[in-house]
């Protein structure tokens, strides 16, 4: 058997070419006599790594010059606090509007309540987080400090395929997006975004690094209680070096950016090629699930995630098996493991199965999973 196919939701599979290059440079980066983990973050060598990583990311996502790129620590979950600490002060009453479409935006709303007046502008909780409320139905306030949404819900498998235009909805506020689990899988419309943040451990690299891409006019509003090293303006002014940054994670991210830039799919290159592959992978798996009598995905097809595909096996009564200890679920996971199909168990909060199809997952991996789905159904 070759290298297994890792469907983990994060930390996740990475391009083998990146891992091989990192291994080759582990002891000596470009002949400098040091590995990246041994370098001073203020030395010339790491300065080159950081500058190149930012330049490559800007090119890949066409980030406008009025946006700052920050390489931060803490994971995306920490930015559920750092965002309100930095932006809630834009409004006298610290008004924050949140659209709740799954577990992560729910967590964001809960954390933001520690620092501001949170209003749930829309929620799909009544539908089990299987859909996105139409933006026309959102009850947005006219001028909150910001509006928050999670543009891809990793656990529930719901994705905004188009970001809302808040101005068209009568809301004069910046949009904040948590794009952790689909960053670099598609372009971002920066005309509709004020701040985007993303944990690196899904599409970019190892855990420990979070990207923050923030419009310059949103800097300088941090609450007095905001720690200095969490102040986005401080991070921007000090080129992400208010404290020692996650140097190894930034280095790996830089290699991934170069890998993405080198991807080709027909006439498409870079992120456009990656997006075409993401659509092909997701289409292949959803078609297999929808064409089955044993498996079911409960998400509205209009907002199914291309990155995270949750699904359930059905019991003999036709109902989804949510009990992770059900013998049929256990047999499915055991058989998958034997075939080199790893990390398919669903999140503990929802049960079932989940296949994460991040950028480094080849189409062959999804085809192998589809083949197994059909084999298991024939034997069930």
Features:
alpha/beta, single chain, Aspartate Aminotransferase, domain 1, globular, 9 helices, 2 domains, Aspartate Aminotransferase, domain 2, 3-stranded antiparallel beta sheet, 380 residues, 7-stranded mixed beta sheet
**Which blocks of ≥5 consecutive residues have pLDDT under 50?**
none
How many beta-strand runs? Answer: 16
CATH topology of the largest domain: Aspartate Aminotransferase, domain 2
Helical residues, percent = 25-40%
Query: Count the helices. How many?
Result: 9
Q: Largest beta sheet, briefly?
A: 7 strands, mixed
- The overall average pLDDT, rounded, is 96
User: Which superfamily, in CATH terms, is the homologous superfamily of the largest domain?
Assistant: Type I PLP-dependent aspartate aminotransferase-like (Major domain)
- Order of helical and strand elements: EHHEHEHEEEEEEEHHEEHEEHEEH
The top level CATH class name of the largest domain: Alpha Beta
Strand order in the sheet with the most strands: 2-10-9-8-5-3-4
CA distance, first residue to last residue: 25 Å
Strand content is 15-25%
Instruction: Please compute the radius of gyration using only Cα atoms.
Output: 21 Å
- Count of all domains: 2
Instruction: Please give the CATH architecture of the largest domain.
Output: 3-Layer(aba) Sandwich
């Amino acid at each position: 058997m070759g290298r297994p196919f890792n469907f983990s939701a994060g930390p996740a599979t990475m391009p083998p070419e990146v891992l091989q290059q990192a291994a080759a440079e582990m002891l000596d980066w470009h002949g400098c006599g040091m590995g990246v983990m041994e370098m001073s973050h203020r030395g010339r060598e790491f300065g080159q790594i950081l500058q190149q990583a930012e330049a490559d990311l800007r090119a890949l996502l066409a980030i406008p010059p009025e946006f700052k790129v920050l390489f931060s620590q803490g994971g995306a979950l920490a930015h559920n606090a750092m965002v309100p600490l930095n932006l809630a002060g834009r409004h006298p009453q610290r008004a924050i509007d949140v659209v709740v479409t799954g577990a992560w935006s729910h967590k964001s709303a809960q954390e933001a309540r520690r620092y501001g007046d949170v209003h749930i502008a829309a929620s799909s909780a009544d539908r089990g987080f299987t859909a996105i409320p139409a933006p026309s139905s959102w009850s947005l306030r006219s001028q909150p400090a910001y509006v928050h949404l999670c543009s891809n819900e990793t656990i529930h498998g719901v994705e905004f395929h188009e970001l809302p235009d808040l101005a068209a909805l009568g809301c004069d506020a910046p949009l904040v997006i948590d794009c952790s689990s689909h960053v670099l899988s598609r372009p971002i419309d920066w005309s509709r975004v004020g701040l985007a943040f993303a944990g690196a451990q899904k599409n970019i690299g190892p855990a420990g690094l979070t990207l923050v891409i923030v419009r310059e006019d949103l800097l300088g509003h941090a609450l007095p209680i905001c720690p200095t090293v969490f102040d986005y303006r401080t991070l921007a002014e000090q080129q992400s070096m208010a404290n020692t940054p996650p140097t190894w994670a930034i280095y790996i991210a830089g290699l991934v950016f170069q890998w993405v830039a080198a991807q080709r799919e027909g006439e498409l290159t870079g992120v456009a090629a990656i997006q075409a592959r993401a659509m092909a992978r997701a289409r292949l798996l959803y078609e297999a699930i929808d064409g089955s009598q044993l498996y079911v995905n409960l998400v509205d097809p209009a907002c199914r995630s291309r990155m995270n595909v949750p699904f359930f096996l059905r019991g003999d009564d036709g109902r989804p098996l949510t009990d992770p200890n059900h013998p049929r679920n256990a047999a499915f996971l055991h058989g998958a493991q034997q075939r080199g199909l790893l990390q398919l168990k669903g999140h503990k909060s929802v049960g079932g199965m989940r296949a994460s199809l991040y950028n480094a997952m080849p189409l062959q991996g999804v085809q192998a999973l589809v083949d197994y789905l059909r084999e298991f159904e024939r034997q069930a």
